[in-house]
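Researcher: Here's a chain I'd like modeled. Treat it as a single chain, no partners, no ligands.
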Amino acid sequence: ANSLKYVKGAGQNWAGVKITLDTAVDAANGEVITANVHSTVARDITLKFDAANVERKVSHGGTGWEAMSFDFTGAMPADQTVIAFFNDLTQQGDGSADWTIYIDNLAQTTGGTAGPTIALPVDFEEAADAYEITGFDGGVATVEAGPDNANSLKYVKGAGQNWAGVKITLDTAVDAANGEVITANVHSTVARDITLKFDAANVERKVSHGGTGWEAMSFDFTGAMPADQTVIAFFNDLTQQGDGSADWTIYIDNLAQTGDGVTTPAGPSAAAPTPPARNAADVISLYSDAYTDVASNFDAGWCGANSVSQISVAGNATTAYLGNACQGIVLNAGVDVSAFTNLHVDIYIEAGTDLTSSVFNLKFVNQPGGGALEMNLNVASSPALIAGQWLSVDLTVNLTNFTGFKEFGITSNLNNKVWYDNLYAYKGTPLSVGEIDEFNFVTYPNPVENTLNVSAGVVVDNVSIFDITGREVMRATPNAAAFSLDVADLNKGMYLVTVKAGKQELTTKLVK
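Model: Modeled as a single isolated chain. Structure tokens:
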């Protein structure tokens, strides 16, 4: 639909658009201005009445269309010229780049966020008055941070509840003219059927979910798309997969209407390369399934909360860099890394991204107030940034003076377009084949139900099991080469099992 489109030119530090109304606004019509604003980069939006010189600033998350509210209560002028500023100076480094913003539905209201009145799409980050959600048959439905830390529809099924689902009532009915295929991203850690049903019309389509985390799903209503505004998503019927006696959680996001096919979510479809085996003493891992991560506040909020989120890519935990200008990692305690010589990280940038002005910068920080070492990656660096495939970066670093390494920072303008894994410092060389063969172990059965058996070629000193967030959920000191662990109390999901024997350490994945 027609929107106000604003294109900022490269090198233009102040960016904005002036909207001159035919008549002045009147406070009697409300003292809150609402608008729908589309941006793919997180930034501040300032709305200003020019003659009266009053303004209000609201933060945009960079997630596409967002409903925004500018509250002028007590200061609403009689003014007909509105200026929308989209950044000031070089916020997020935008001074050297050009970008596009859209504005629509600029309106005046008596209070609060009016929000869009929509059918589809719904990404569950828009105004809540665009839809209502109700847990079906006793289930609990909310909108909150999902596995990727962005707002999603979260549905929790209660134990003993045989029919499970959520009812989504849209403000307006869907229209077949907008497409006869419904797509959605659905997160489940258990394989199950997902049924999408239009309630009044009583038409439904069923699609199988593989249980691999976030999956893009397509429900084809071609020839049967109703004019209906109530959508029910069923997640199982009766006791499919024995779920009648258990409770579990499912997330839905990006519910949309299209003409054909499924919209594949951005990001990598394959997991990052597996790092080589190294002695535990030769690695300081900040984020990796292959090694034990050092304890830290991984999202310290240097540039705001929720700088990153964790997603699952082909069963492998991966970090998604979100809408803030930086991410800060603060270790729980300082670490001596003066003997470490290299930094490794695997980076994936969304296919088709223009990398001309893109950066991905990595910085070691000594104890607060100490020195720092920054490495800058761009299209001219070595290695150079690339898009559409995993880039394995190994950099030589001089950390001689870093006896109290405490903080690590990442800055990038690739907001919501870059993912990374296997971020660690290391020294020495990978273990040789012979060294690896001397210490090997197997876990069985996998997937496991109640008892996990471990068999190693050497005596195991200790074993730890971590969930996908990195939290240790079980530890044992078997002092044996073959032993069993009772894992009946662990929730279903993906885990990492780390086994240590002397100075050697190996990790494998476990599914329950």
